[in-house]
Structures are given as C-alpha cells and as structure tokens.
Design brief:
The chain has 265 residues and is α/β, with parallel strands linked by helices. It has two domains: 6-205, Alpha-Beta Complex (2-enoyl-CoA Hydratase, Chain A, domain 1), CATH 3.90.226; 211-255, no CATH class. Helices cover 48% and strands 14% of the residues. The chain has a six-stranded mixed β-sheet with strand order 1-2-3-4-6-9, with helices on both faces. It has a three-stranded mixed β-sheet with strand order 5-7-8. The radius of gyration is 19 Å and the shape is globular. The two termini are 21 Å apart.
C-alpha cells in the first residue's frame, strides 16, 4: 500500500506506517487523516499483520492539525467545521489505533505537536528519538483545549499535575524528560530509533495474537474498578484464556524449554 501522504510497508508480519509530508512536518491535513484511517482499517483486516510501527517521514513526527483544514464554507462557522472534521476523521483514527488487534509502537522521530501528541500516545509502546519533543500549544497559543485524546492519555501516563502544567504552560517536553516522567518507554539516539522500533515490533509480533487487546482492556478496566472488582475481572479472563490454545502452547513450550510459537490471529 502506497500513497503520497501515508506510506505503509509490511515485512515479517510488521506494518510500518509513515506519515509522509516531511516538508510540513506531517500535519494532520484532511487528506492525511482520510488516508491514515483507510490504512488502519486495511491493516486491521489483514491477518498477516501482527504488529505495527507508526512514525513520520523527515525531521518531524506530526505537527498537529493543519489549520487550513478548519476553514469553513459560508454555511457553517469555523468552529463547527473543525468539530465536524474532528468527529468524522480524528476521533475514529485514535479509537481505531486503540482497537487494533495487534500491538502498536510509536517511533517519534521529531516534534510531536498538538494532535500529533494524541496520535503518538494512542500507541501501546512509545519510543522517541533524542531530538524529539512533545508540544501542546492549544491553550496558551490558541485558547482551545488539547484534543486527539491528549486530555485522556496525559493524566493517566504522567499524572494530572504534570498534564495540566504542560497544557497551560505550553512548554516543549523533551524526549529525555518524557522518559523520566514515564510518558514514553524509551528515549534513544536518533540514528537508532527505527532499528529499535523494528526490534520491539518483531518481539511483539511473536506474542499471542490477542495479547494487545487483552492488555489494553485489562488496564482500562482497572481504571474504573475497585481492587475487589479488578481481582474478579482478572479471574474471569484467566478462566477463559487458560482454556485457549495460546496458553496450551505456552505451557508446552515452557516444559520443553523452547520458545512458544503462536498461531495466526
């Protein structure tokens, strides 16, 4: 699958999806959002894909929403036009990423700004190049709230105090500090980013096919459950999963002192 604004390459069960408007730092234009969702839907239904890398071409990951895409016609306000695009394109992309039946690695190769932050954080594992940074200009520069799920992801990953401060101050959060705060898994040298992302993606691709969805759902359930409720949730999932083929293969591999080989998803 190839397209001018989004490139997708599949190799060894790993899909690498690249935002591809490098001269503009890959803004979330209407065209890019439409194509990105198309790619995600195609990958969701491709049984050969077991992991995905999301990255940007050139020196930036994603510059956020292309402000030109919020221009309205004569029949609606600019705010209404923007809300329509957000609801029709941006929200489905974030939700699609969170529901993909395989793990997703974000490889942040440069600035992630505005909606680009939410896009990055929708992945399961986030790597960032040392030159990368995260930037939320919404409130201090434009008087609008962070979107693309930023207000949902950030407090859960770094705590409400730091999330609120980032939103209000609009300071750039370096990749190194993001790693220190627990926002990302790892900060690596720029030249090592894609190699490290591919290594992790291949490791993730070897897991049971349902592992990513089970992990996301378990931790999401913990956010709304008491400890007692979550213990019941864990027990219910074990009741079903232990009777499944992945556990049987894992147990056999353990006893036979070999790596497990899990079936297709």
């Amino acid at each position: 699958m190839n397209d001018q604004v989004v490139i997708c390459d599949i190799s060894d069960s790993v899909a690498t999806v690249t935002l591809n408007e490098p001269t503009k730092l890959n803004p979330m234009s209407t065209q890019l959002q439409v194509r990105l969702r198309e790619v995600l839907v195609q990958l969701r239904d491709d049984k050969s894909v077991r992991a995905m890398i999301l990255t940007g071409a050139g020196k930036g990951f994603c510059a956020g929403t292309d402000l030109r895409s919020t221009d309205s016609g004569e029949q609606q306000s600019r705010g209404q036009a923007a809300a329509d695009i957000i609801g029709r394109l941006l929200h489905p992309i974030i939700l699609e990423l969170r529901e993909l039946p395989f793990p997703v690695v974000s490889a942040i190769n440069g600035p992630a700004a505005g909606a680009g932050v939410g896009l990055a954080l929708a992945a399961d594992i986030i790597l960032a190049a040392r030159s990368a940074y995260f930037y939320l200009p919404f409130l201090p520069k434009m008087g609008i709230v962070p979107d693309a799920g930023c207000t949902w992801f950030l407090p859960r990953l770094i705590g409400p105090g730091r999330a609120l401060s980032l939103a209000l101050l609009g300071e750039r959060l370096s990749a190194e500090r993001a790693a220190q705060w627990g926002l990302i898994w790892e900060c690596v040298d720029d030249a090592e980013l894609l190699g490290r992302a591919r290594l992790l993606a291949k490791q993730l691709a070897a897991m049971p096919a349902h592992a990513a969805l089970e992990a996301r759902r378990a931790f999401a359930a913990a956010e709304r459950h008491t400890l007692s409720e979550q213990l019941h949730y864990e027990c219910d999932r074990q009741r079903e999963l232990i009777d499944g083929p992945a556990f049987s293969e894992g147990a056999r591999a353990f006893l036979e002192k070999r790596q497990p080989v899990f079936g297709e998803r």
